[in-house]
Amino acid sequence: MRSVRARAALGATVVVAVALIGAGLAVLLVLRANLTDQAGLQAEVAAREVAGQLALDVPVGQLDLPDEEEHPVQVTDEDGRPVAVSKDLEAITGTGTDRVTPHAPVAPTRTGTDDDGGGDRHGGEDRGDDDDESRNIPARGEVSADDPDFTDGTATVDGDTADYRFASVSATTGAGVTLTVHAGAPLATEQKAVGSVRGAMLIGLPVMLLIVAAVTWLVTRRALRPVEGIRTEMAAITASEDLSRRVPEPGSRDEIARLARTTNETLTALEASVDRQRRFVADASHELRSPIASLRTQLEVGAAHPELLDVPGAVADTVRLQALAADLLLLARLDAGERPGSTRLDIGALVHEEVSQRTGDRIPVTVSVPPSEPLEVTGSRSQLARIIGNLLDNAERHAESSVAVSVRAERGSVVVAVGDDGPGVPEPERERIFERFVRLDDARSRDEGGAGLGLAIARDVARRHQGTLTVTRSPEGGARFELRLPARSDPGN
Q1: What is the rounded distance in angstroms from the CA atom of residue 263 to the CA atom of residue 254?
Q2: Residue 340 in contact with residue 377, Cβ under 8 Å?
Q3: Across the strands, what pairs with 73?
Q4: Pick from 200, 56, 203, 81: which is nearest to 138 by CA?
């Protein structure tokens, strides 16, 4: 099942089905329990009415039993033998005995004057005092105050068998005989109600699930419609390779709208990257064409006229071509995401080393490094040396009489500043000079071999080292480049 809509509809249907089935079972159980308790209460009332009669010594043969269809009654003695049953009760289960033929009835014991005994009923020696007269009151039994026992069973009354809830209540007659009254209440109402609810659930559950599935399908389809638009547009962009196109952004503020905005931002970044790459290739081709053409011309002239071969010029063009190829290779590695090294190095010592190797500079370089403590950073030694070398090369091209390098610590960073007393960089051009193959007009007149990659490489390397490279105006009036790198947190270790 590859469709998101189908999976969403199926998932919602399954969840709702489980919830409805669980809720339905709970409702059925609660309903059955409540109706069964009501039937038990009715059976208990009927049983206590009969037990009350027994406690008043009403003979079992004269008991006023309730309607046998509503409340079938069975009275048993201590041995479990029936002594009284409802009329037309043909069979019974669930009361402890299934016999419905009454045993010999238990006659209540009577106290007082016996009409058949000797003595005068109205006087004579058998007449007692007032205490003896109190014995003429018939003795009374009692009904058990304990909660009755409830059981489920069946009873057949006049040929009809039904389920009943039986309540068993004990009663003691005045003669001390304990009898148990089993009275039932029909469970037909409970069964009918539970059956009706169950039937309604069985009919309504599929309908409800179909509604849930249909609604989920429609809602998901409507919600995913913008996604289909995004997919269609992305497929068209892929087929046409036109990165200037954008996917439609819905007016909502949900996740799909954010997805569309993010996709367009990605397309914008991709378009800019491709354009930058195309310009890079074009500029690199242009820059490579000049030294290659010059070198070819010199070699062709030398081949035809060896005495006219300009060997120093050919060497210079070769050196320029080699440097340009190295710059292009480094930029390619940086664009590919090459990570800088993790070497610990003293940036002050690195500056001294780079300056000491520049023996052919037309202007001497002054270095100012605090001697008190090493200023350590972490990174690639060769790449950081490349930044310093490029900044010094740039300063040498534009300086009039002085180039100065300083190193200092500042708020958890190490700052390397390279300044000159040249014409400086106009403020509107201070960011543009860090773009690849960009050279200002005055720089072109002085540049005898640069391709406009030195500052671009320096900034890219600085960013790879979590640092920054900016340009401002120096106190001498020229340009001042500041390289800011994170200092090591444990320079002493």
Answers
A1: 14
A2: no
A3: 183
A4: 56
Q: Which of 310, 292, 288 is nearest to 301 (CA)?
A: 310
Under the phi-then-psi rule, with left for phi > 0, alpha for psi from -120 to 50, and beta for the rest, what region is 274? alpha
Instruction: Please state, as a whole number, how many other Cβ atoms lie within 10 Å of the Cβ of residue 187.
Output: 21
Pick the closest to residue 155 from 65, 71, 220, 91 (CA basis): 91
- CATH code of 255-335, in short, is 1.10.287.130
Out of 43-57, 302-316, 363-377, which region has the weakest mean confidence (pLDDT)?
302-316
> How confident is the model over 450-465, as a mean pLDDT?
85
Cβ distance 216 to 108 under 8 Å? Answer: no
The least confident of 99-108, 351-360, 453-462 is 99-108
CA trace torsion 265, 270, 272, 277 (10° rounding)? 170
CATH number for the domain whose boundaries are 343-486:
3.30.565.10
Round to whole Å and give the CA distance between 2 and 6.
8
Which residue type does 458 have? A
Q: Report the 10 Å Cβ neighbour count for 194.
A: 18
Domain boundaries, the chain: 1-102+134-241, 255-335, 343-486
Distance CA 351, CA 417 (A): 11
Q: Of 319, 459, 273, nearest to 383 (Cα)? A: 459
**Packing angle, helices 311-335 and 454-464, rounded to 10:** 30
Ramachandran category for residue 452: left, alpha or beta (phi over 0 → left; psi -120 to 50 → alpha): left
- The type of residue at 477 is G
What is the structure's pLDDT at 473?
Answer: 92
- 152-172 b/e with 16+ CB inside 10 Å = b? ebbbbbeeeeebbbbbbbbbb
